[in-house]
Each structure stands twice: as C-alpha cells, then as structure tokens.
Amino acid sequence: MGTKRQAAATVHDECPETGRLIGRVLRAQSGFFRVETEQGIVMCTLRGRLKKERQSTDLAVIGDLVEVTPTMPGHGVIEAVLPRRTKLARRAPASKGVWKEDVLAANLDQALLVFSCASPEFSPRMLDRYLVLTETSDLDAVIVANKVDLVGEKEARRLFAPYERREYPVLYTSAVTGLGINALRERLAGRISVVTGRSGVGKSSLFNAVQPGLGLKVGSVSAALNKGRHTTRVAELIPLDLPGGGYLADTPGIRELGLWRFPKDELARCFREFRPYLGECYFAGCTHIHEPDCAVRAALARGEITPERYDSYVRLFEGE
Questions:
Q1: Which of 127, 139, 209, 202 is nearest to 164 (CA)?
Q2: Do 240 and 248 touch, CB atoms closer than 8 A?
Q3: Fewest Cβ atoms nearer than 10 Å: which of 2, 22, 260, 305?
Q4: Cβ distance 68 to 59 under 8 Å?
Q5: CA–CA dist 223, 120 (Å, integer)
Q6: How far is residue 114 CA from its own chain's centroid?
Q7: If you count DSSP H runs as helices and E runs as strands, how many of each does the chain have, helices first?
C-alpha cells in the first residue's frame, strides 16, 4: 500500500480554518451518523443546508471524511462532506423507472471480491462485472477464492488462473482448513477495505477466522442491508484489531451489479488483456464486436483473450 493512500486515510483532529473536527463516518442509519474523531466518537446529524446541497447523491456514507461542529459532549452536526478519493457505487432503481447512484462506501483502499469455488458455483461473469467496477473506481482488487476445501487447491487454481495471468492478486482461502487466513489478515491490516460478494460465499465464516467475532458483525450488517429499501438500512465501517489497524466495510450480497453512468467507449480498457490491442483496430471507435479488422477480435482468435472474458465484455457492452 502506497504512503499516499495511507496518508489520505488519516483522520485529523481539527480543521485549522474553522476549528471544526474532522472525522470518519463509521455508521450511517436513518439520518444519524456515528463519526470517529481524534476526540472520540461523535453522534451526528446533517446540517439542513447540506441536505439540500446533496439531494442528487448519497448524503454521507461509511468511509466519508466529514467536518463536524460539536453541539454538546458526544454530539455534533456534520457541516461538510470532504471530496471522496474513491468510492464503490452501483446503479440502483429509483422512482418512475429511472436509475440513481447508490454509493456503498467511500475513501477505500481496496476491494476484496469474495467468490466461492463451489456452493454456490463460481461465476466468472459476475467476477468480471466486479472487476470492471473496481477498475473504474480506481480501487485495488483482491480476489478471494473461498471454500477451497470443497474442490481442492489444484481445481481452485484452475478456476482462477485466468485472473492471476492478468496480474490480479488471488488469495485461496478456507475457513475449514485455515488455508490463506494469515495472508488475508495481512492484506487487511492498515487498509480500508470493502468486502463484497454474493450471498452464501462464506464471508462470515471467513472473517470470523481472521478475527474472532468479526464475522458476526459482518453477517449482521449484511442482514440489515438486505431487508429492502423500505426498511431501516444500516451500514457500518468496522475497526480491525490488527497490526496497523484498518477498517472493514461490508456490503450486502449483490446479485446484479449495475455500472453507474458508465461510458461504453471506456469499457474495453477495463479488461486488462484488451489494452495491448486498443488503438490497433482499423476503424477508430471500434466496439470490438462487429467491425472488420478488429485487433481485439484477432487476439481472441489467436487465443490471447479467452472466450469467457470476451463474452463478458460483449454482454456488458450490450447492457446485459
């Protein structure tokens, strides 16, 4: 992890221009925010002016750095939300058939994409969608291949080999055997991480192995978030008891991940194996789907791009 990102994740105790506290949102629920500052935890609401300013986006989410004016011991008002370094967002349905941006967490250092080798079956297409999201969000992606004990390490490595060849780090884990737990613990230490993946991939058991009791918190956050849009939604950034600290943000199991306002002409660059061939096509603005003399499709024919990854690209390009 670079020092620039670590420095950006630091919570300062005071904004010298205004005297306000600067803290990090650890929990957001029904208009109330639990903010960690150098002076302790402050329970906050948002200033009315700020609510009006931020009607078109999420008011404040876990991981946000905010300016707080104390009102009484342990309580305060959020005056401003500082610009986000990174964010993890998905496209979510709003009223009257339109779509809106749903920011899940902000100021993250990395995304841990947890997929099981079996039960549920590994879905390369879903993983490709997550990887496109992390590429566009400027997040380091770490693939966690869980439940290795169900298929054996040789088969697990076969399943995820295409991603290792593209230089995505893959951690092979099993809460049953303890495989990869130390490596996972090292990846989490000192970083602000978001963990995501389909329901049933074993996140709770895995993180209980990393830190006893942590998986219970992860599970409770997921359950609350999965209740639906008409009930109370709870999101939490969980401090880690690891060397160098760190935080863990959990997200609900996402069955369909929408790419927020994603320009199609940038999609090909999100597939790392396409990059050497971009700009080599005969036609400018080539979609790499139907045009003749396409360098990407030529690489596909030579076996330099796998059919599975190319199929994921086409489906995403066509909005499937």
A1: 127
A2: yes
A3: 2
A4: no
A5: 18
A6: 11
A7: 9, 13
